[in-house]
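Problem 12. The chain below contains 358 residues. Write out its predicted structure in token notation.
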Amino acid sequence: MSRYTASDIEPKWQAAWDEAQTFLATRDAAKPKYYVLEMFPYPSGRIHMGHVRNYTMGDVIARYKMSCGFSVLHPMGWDAFGMPAENAAMERGGHPKDWTYGNIADMRAQMKPLGLSIDWSREFATCDPEYYGQQQSMFLDFMDKGLVYRKAATVNWDPVDMTVLANEQVIDGKGWRSGAPVERRELTQWFFKISDFSEELLEAIDGLDAWPEKVKLMQRNWIGKSRGLQFSFGLIDGPHGHDRVEVYTTRPDTLMGASFIGISPDHPLAKMLEREDEEIAAFNADCRRMGTSEEDLEKAEKLGYDTGLRVRHPFDNAWAPAKKSSKPRKRRATTPASAPPTLSSKVRNCRSMWPTSC
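Solution.
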């Protein structure tokens, strides 16, 4: 057997595959279809071993299915639309389009020698008008059906990339790409009415027989179905416009053991109080600088600040004042929530809760 010399053998067979259009996806009624799609790379300008690993796995699956007689579609795309590309272009000087498509050309040239079974004729970038135009059209269809809406929401804001980050993109309170301290801001956002289909999604999970049980459990937890009771505590001499605090609990049987109410730094009452109290404002600011991932929420120190406000228990007029405390919780409903033996508003991304002693 002759020696394998990659620099000689790889170009030879890759040229043969290109000439024969081996990986070109074609319609064949006699063959079952199979679609292989890996995560699109961000066009930073150079590939790394993470890219090699990712697309090698897809390549193995695509080649295996082709060997089994499937008509395989294995395309390539580029996750190229958004603020990071614009910021990078501003930093280097030039137009985002030139910088982005230049990087795509460089990365394509780096990936092709790997000999992946990709149908490059199907290549596109998410910044192509032909692509995002379809997304815009789909969004308008959702809007026509009443499935999207706008409302103010607290988000993770990266002041360097000037964009909103998901909780998982905030690491130790900093943006995963820029490294800048993340700020908590309230911005008007678009939302899809996914919750309207929660029950249907949950029922459909039971039919996914081929899915690993741990993955199905993750999906159920993400949907986050919760059954409980929503009610109010009356505020005693509360600020103007705040005569009660609405809470939600999955354990209404523990209501008589409640000792205080905790509200998040992003609760409307907390925001009103911080305008008049510098210490409250400072405490709020500290809470908003903490991490926002699930792991951060679990590990975060439980902080608290006594607002001085008092509330009336809906069933116990002799309810006594309690010590201040805090407990971080994630939102499962649109209202604040309570937890035995403390009552806390469940607001996503909050590590510290505002205690309102009773």
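Discussion. The first strand starts at residue 33 and ends at 35. Students who got a different answer should revisit the alignment rule from Section 12.3.
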